[in-house]
Amino acid sequence: MEDKVITHWKGNSQFESDNPSGKTLLMDTSAEHGGYNSGLRPKAMMLASLAGCSGLDVVSVLNKMKVTVSDFRMDTYGELTEEHPKYYHTVSVEYHFYGKDLDEGKIKKAVDLSIEKYCGVMEMFRKFAKVNTSIHYHNK
């Protein structure tokens, strides 16, 4: 299986990329680096991809286990190297679950399955970064 993404330069520091879904996104950099700050930053999109990939897994597994949560979010942090080329050497993903009487055992199992088995983006990150994860339960 192969994905194809086409990225067009839009002038200055802006680029627009398509996606196999047909959607597009705009990438840019800050004004201090010559951009307009009008789009997503490429490295930060990697963190969003990691969270999105794992989040899709977690929601799918929780649905199969018939576990309900009122809200779910992931806070993802990346620490860049000091020298060029700068890349994330350490990444942390915090899983936050909100609800009443949360089934912590099943939620942990869903997160663990994503981290250890299903999330391909997580596996890619492990090739170049130390990945830390934590789960936070917010019972209402």
Automatic annotation (TrEMBL):
InterPro entries, per the entry: KH_dom-like_a/b (IPR015946), OsmC/Ohr_fam (IPR003718), OsmC/Ohrsf (IPR036102)
Coiled coil: none
Alphabetized Gene3D superfamilies for the sequence: 3.30.300.20
The name this protein goes by in its record: OsmC family protein
UniProt organism field: Gelidibacter pelagius
